[in-house]
Amino acid sequence: MNKKISTAKKVLMLKVVIHLAAFLPLFNLYYLAFNDLLGADPVERVIHFTGIGAFNLLLVTLTISPIAKKFKQGYLLQVRRLLGLYAFSYAFMHVLNFLAFDLQFAWWLFFNEIVKRPYITIGMLAFVLVAALAITSLNSLKRKMGKSWQNLHNFSYLIVVLVSIHFYWSVKSELISPLFYFLLTIILLSFRYKKIKVLLGSLFSKRQS
Ligand code: HEM
User: How far is ligand 1, taken at its centre, from the CA of residue 158, in Å?
Assistant: First the structure.
């Protein structure tokens, strides 16, 4: 009983920390933006901050399971959904900022960018997948989807690869940060080497049959 309460407390405390660490920087960003305190290129700053924020949160979400396994801290898995939802929220703001501040809600330009610029096409594919994972994270949908829920959520591995490419392709000069993030992505995926091998194996065997 005591152990149960202390686990519930740990999860609650972690959730509070995640809310503070994820929500406050976003709030601060828009406070600075709307008070004209973001320097010479506020649009670039906002797109950069939300893009990197979303990527960081996706990577932290993927780190949870190897850490929980290694240190036998199963309760950590209970905060994965919250982290994933914050990753989606940052990604949503990233796309919204691009649409609102870069394109002034010109939808035809938005679709044109998605079709014409490969880095935006890849980003959009990642975003659609992140949105699908966020929507299906609802418990009721999880229950209804059964085994296909896990199949869909395995796409999180593809998402981080797509975002790495999107990041690398989007930068014009400085390549150190995208390469660093690419390395982090490879390290995190290497912990799932066996699972990814099985997934790829079953994908190719399905295509051949
Ligand atoms: C899960 C989805 C996505 C994530 C995690 C993500 C992340 C990122 C990251 C990390 C950067 C580099 C930031 C920088 O160094 O300035 C970036 C840049 C950018 N992304 Fe995304 N992105 C996503 C989807 C999208 C989508 C769907 C669009 C547009 C439809 C988009 C538009 C842009 C633009 C315009 C830039 C800035 C390129 C520049 O500097 O000119 N992103 N994104």
Answer: 16
| 171/174 Cα distance (integer angstroms) | 7
The one-letter amino acid at 55:
F
Looking at the predicted structure, is the pLDDT value of residue 42 above 70? yes
Angle at 44 between CA 43 and CA 45, to 5 degrees: 90
**Which ligand 1 atom is at minimum distance from the Cα of 171?**
40
At 209, is the secondary structure helix, strand, or coil?
coil
Residue with tokens 């085994």: 147
φ, ψ for residue 175, nearest 5 deg: -105, -5
| Residue 39 host element (H or E) | none
Token pair 């979303």 is found at 54
Burial 19-53 (b: 16+ CB within 10 A, else e): eeebeeebeebeebbeeeebeeebeebbbebbbeb
Q: What span, in angstroms and rounded, lies between the C-alpha atoms of 101 and 179? A: 27
Task: State pLDDT tens for residues 110-125.
Answer: 999 999 999 999 999 9
By most ligand atoms within 8 Å of CB, the mutation choice from 41, 44, 61, 94 for ligand 1 is: 94
